[in-house]
């Protein structure tokens, strides 16, 4: 990075982080809700698969 300059001629490092958008609380909440829904869907489909295949074997319980 030595000797490198930004477009405006300054040598300040990473100026782009000053203007990065910040995630709003509702965006974080929506992302968490989506992740929770995805996890529940995965668990539900796994349970359905296990039950369809005859349940847990004795080895799987140990």
Structural notes for this entry:
With 62 residues, the protein is mainly α. The chain has a domain at 23-61. It is built from 2 helices and no strands. The protein has helices at 25-52, 58-61. The mean pLDDT is 74.
Look at the helices and sheets and give the structural class.
Answer: mainly alpha
Distance between the termini: 56 Å
Cα shape: elongated
- Indicate the low-confidence ranges by residue numbers: none
Number of strands: 0
User: What about the largest sheet?
Assistant: none
Helix-strand pattern, N to C? HH
Determine the strand fraction and express it as a percent band: under 5%
User: What is the count of DSSP helices, taking H or I runs of 4+ residues?
Assistant: 2
What helical percentage do the residues reach? 40-55%
Question: How large is the radius of gyration?
Answer: 25 Å
Mean pLDDT: 74
Keywords:
single chain; mainly alpha; 52% helix; elongated; 2 helices; 62 residues
Topology readout:
Blueprint: H1 25-52, H2 58-61
Question: Brief description of this entry?
Answer:
The protein has 62 residues and is mainly α. It contains two helices and no strands. The protein has helices at 25-52, 58-61.
């Amino acid at each position: 990075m030595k000797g490198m300059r930004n477009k405006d001629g300054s040598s300040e490092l990473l100026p782009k982080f000053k203007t990065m958008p910040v995630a709003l609380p509702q965006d974080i909440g929506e992302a968490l809700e989506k992740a929770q829904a995805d996890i529940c869907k995965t668990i539900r489909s796994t349970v359905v698969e296990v039950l369809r295949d005859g349940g847990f074997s004795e080895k799987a319980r140990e």
